[in-house]
Amino acid sequence: MEDLIAPSILSANFARLGEEVDAVLNAGADVIHFDVMDNHYVPNLTIGPIVLKALRDHGVVSPVDVHLMVEPVDRLISDFAEAGATYISIHPETTDDPYTSLGLIRAAGIKAGLVLNPDTPVTVLDNLLDQIDLILVMSVNPGFGGQTFLPASLDKVRAVRARLDDSVRNVRLEIDGGIKIDNIRAAKDAGADMFVAGSAIFGSTNYVKTISAMRTALNA
Ligand code: DX5
Ligand code: ZN
């Protein structure tokens, strides 16, 4: 599968969000990563489905990767499906029944993702793999942009990749947190094929240069 670069709008300028999203897509981004936080599962509060709908109405046609850090999660799944999500990822701790929640996502015609926090064992995938289109490995603890990459997450990516290679289905392996130009290649070498970067892209002065440098590192 080709590598996908997914800027996290958590680090965008929210006062002009539509232009920011247009700018990173024009600069070569593949997917928009949309972080939803509830001040309950994580100690931060961000954006909901009306913001996704506003981006779609603004004319954003790229895939949008919704990362739900909310508890309880099920009721928001249909709201984000209607608002225009392409992927919806959930944390297993936020639902009584992850299998059913992943099924709700897929029943809405959306690609379903499961998120592994740094302290979540890969065994959480047992019995869930047949409901999963995407596995998101957190390389920081969820809640904030701009945190430092946790190197042990590369072992987690390798462990997930080994499980996926044993299975027949095509599942995306995404990494989220602290990804920069200088570590994106290590994440790819560990087995990731979808790369979230918030502060590294939106905190840079030239989105084209930053995304091109990431692409060059991935293709080197
Ligand atoms: C953290 C979020 C990330 C975050 C990444 O909870 O899930 O998507 O925005 O930001 P950076 O790339 O700055 O670590
Ligand atoms: Zn995220």
Automatic annotation (TrEMBL):
Pfam family, one: Ribul_P_3_epim
Protein name, entry field: ribulose-phosphate 3-epimerase
NCBIfam families the UniProt entry points to: PRK05581.1-4, rpe
EC class of the enzyme, as a word: isomerase
Keywords recorded for this protein, A-Z: Isomerase, Metal-binding
HAMAP family: RPE (MF_02227)
Cofactors required: Zn(2+); Co(2+); Mn(2+); Fe(2+)
Catalytic activity: D-ribulose 5-phosphate = D-xylulose 5-phosphate
EC number(s) given by UniProt: 5.1.3.1
CDD domains reported in the protein's UniProt record: RPE
A single MF term (Gene Ontology): metal ion binding
Annotated family: Belongs to the ribulose-phosphate 3-epimerase family.
Cross-referenced PANTHER family: RIBULOSE-5-PHOSPHATE-3-EPIMERASE
Gene Ontology CC: cytoplasm
Gene Ontology terms: biological process: carbohydrate metabolic process; pentose-phosphate shunt
PROSITE patterns per the UniProt record, alphabetical: RIBUL_P_3_EPIMER_1 (PS01085), RIBUL_P_3_EPIMER_2 (PS01086)
